[in-house]
Amino acid sequence: MTDIEGHVAAELDRVREEVVETRRDIHRHPELSLHEERTAEVAARRSAGLGFTVRSGVGGTGVVADIGGGGGEGPTLMIRADMDALPILERGDDRVVTSGTDGVMHACGHDAHVAMALGAAAVLVALRDTWRGRLRLCFQPAEEIASGAAPMIEDGALEGVDRVLGIHVWAPLQVGQVGVREGPIFGSADEFGIIVRGRGGHGGMPHTSIDPVVAAAHVVLALQSIVSRETSPFSPAVVTIGQVSGGRAFNVIADEVRLRGTVRAIELEERERLLRRVGEVAEAIASASGATAEFERMAGCPPVVSDADSVALVRRAARATVGEQNVVTPQAITVGDDVARLIDGAGKGCYFLVGAGDVARHAVAPHHSADFDIDERCLPVGTGTLVRAALEVLR
Asked: Which of 100, 205, 295, 301 has CA atoms 20 to 30 A from the CA of 372?
């Protein structure tokens, strides 16, 4: 073991319990997208206590914190952690920590991301004399609605940043493993809305109306053919309708039905084609029923793509943390994350996965479910990989 690695290991051991307690504190106090005031205050206060220069209210509730190394000029590295929770009622009595806010929970692990970023920051500050350049912490709001990174960028969060490192705990990956992939690891994530308009009337006399419920039902079914019949099976893609709303009474034909959904794709070209086709298919199918359809493209982000150089250094950091046999290459996943905007803006970066479920021993609940939880043994793995990757960039 080298002298510096000995110092790294000792500092990681020193902050281990603090990272766990930070994660549990944030888990007890989950906050929805764009309302992360307490979480942001914790991140800002803890960063300031470590000696960072802190700027709060960046792009809304975002926090940016900077500190320079003791070795002089060098690159600026951003470590990004998202902060928001989800509108889900937490379920399960055997948790080590539970949400204290009814109907809101950290069902995707963002509590762990904030804790690991702060833990890595504490270690890097303790080792400040061994590195140069600048470390920037980015605590981002509103990842779950893909609306947090862009406002932070507009508010200067990326100015001067040369590379971005981001981390995501991943319950389907065995705890103790790290997943690193060159190229896209998460897909694009776009929200869309469709308003199907008909002509309301009496539920017992449908021939005098144009029923938007029936038209919308045909639209929902037809949209599934975009993936099943128009998209190559070698190009992962998703079109999902997650919300249907319309009508107020059982015996009244409504004037309109509103649909909201999402499109996911691994390739940029497929992202644009899918969104275009959703609008075209909706308009054509609605028209065949005598109705109309209005398509609206809403919030979204491109695929999360890691460059080869950043992937290589994260792999080395992960190997030093968990061993060669525990560093894996995951398949690209059709979930999204607007860390993509930060990596794209900086020009270099890596988003990697930290195994957070003991899948070898039992089934784990999926992300965004009421039963979701993490195995806290993932926390030192993520913190250690972040620290070692950061040191390679900054030394």
From this structure: 301
Side-by-side strand order, sheet with 76-82:
53-58, 62-68, 134-140, 76-82, 163-174, 349-357, 178-179, 327-328
Tell me the two tokens of residue 367: 């992300």
Asked if residue 314 lies in contact with residue 387, where contact means CB atoms within 8 angstroms, the answer is no
Give the count of beta carbons closer than 10 Å to the beta carbon of residue 368. Answer: 12
**Residue 57: what pLDDT?**
98
* Structural domain 3-185+303-394, CATH architecture: 3-Layer(aba) Sandwich (3.40)
In this chain, the answer to whether the domains covering 3-185+303-394 and 188-301 adopt an identical fold is no
Of 385, 299, 393, the residue nearest 346 (C-alpha):
393
The residue ranges of the chain whose pLDDT is under 70 are 1-2
Torsion 28-32-34-35 (CA) sign: negative
| Predicted TM-score (pTM) of this structure | 0.94
Residues with a catalytic annotation lie at: 84, 143
Considering the segment(s) 188-301 as one domain, its CATH architecture is 2-Layer Sandwich (3.30)
Token pair, residue 86, equals 């989800």
Domain boundaries, the chain: 3-185+303-394, 188-301
